[in-house]
Amino acid sequence: MKRTWFDQLAPAWDSLPGQPDTAARAQTFLQKVVPPGCFALLDAGAGTGVLVEPLLRLPAPPARIVELDFAPAMLAENRRKHAARPQVRYVCADLSAPPFPAASFGCALLFGALPHVENQRAALAALLEILRPGGRLAVGHLMSSGALNALHASIGGAVAADRLPPASELAALLASLGARVLLAEESPQEYTVLVEKSA
Ligand SMILES: C[S@@+](CC[C@H](N)C(=O)[O-])C[C@H]1O[C@@H](n2cnc3c(N)ncnc32)[C@H](O)[C@@H]1O
Question: Cβ(113) to ligand 1 under 6 A?
């Protein structure tokens, strides 16, 4: 099962070979997608918390950051690293059924997480539901969809078939859910789809 797969990797996750300059590139992604004045932000599929410090370095960081993941060991690692950060809360849950009332967040992020989600359409609809009107949902990766899908196939095991749709395809899916597309772009170095929940 996928949750177990991530849990087993948790202690070593931060030392696995990753993208060069991950923190700096994550910061660039956040500067593009987090709306100024966002009070509460959900980091869905947060893992060990690669976005926490870059989020706190934004010129106007969110007052409340919720780190959500369904793998308890990934979340435990995240909590251990950021224990001194009072703005950060931790929630162990499936992002396809986020345990929050409607209109709870000004922004929700899926950074490196969407391909691993079983029913992507249902998960995206659920995340839009917990955004307030005018809130933003952003999907980000540090490579193109083609490169990521090839990487998952080469890793094999639980993630072998995990697929990120091309940015244009994901944007069309989000538009069909009623969101307004603000950005849909990908290159060998990055992938960003940003939408706004209609008022
Ligand atoms: C590739 S890791 C990325 C973690 C982190 N965002 C990063 O960029 O380092 C994907 C994360 O999504 C989590 N995840 C996958 N499917 C999930 C789901 N349905 N609900 C909640 N978390 C999920 C996994 O447990 C894992 O921690």
Answer: yes
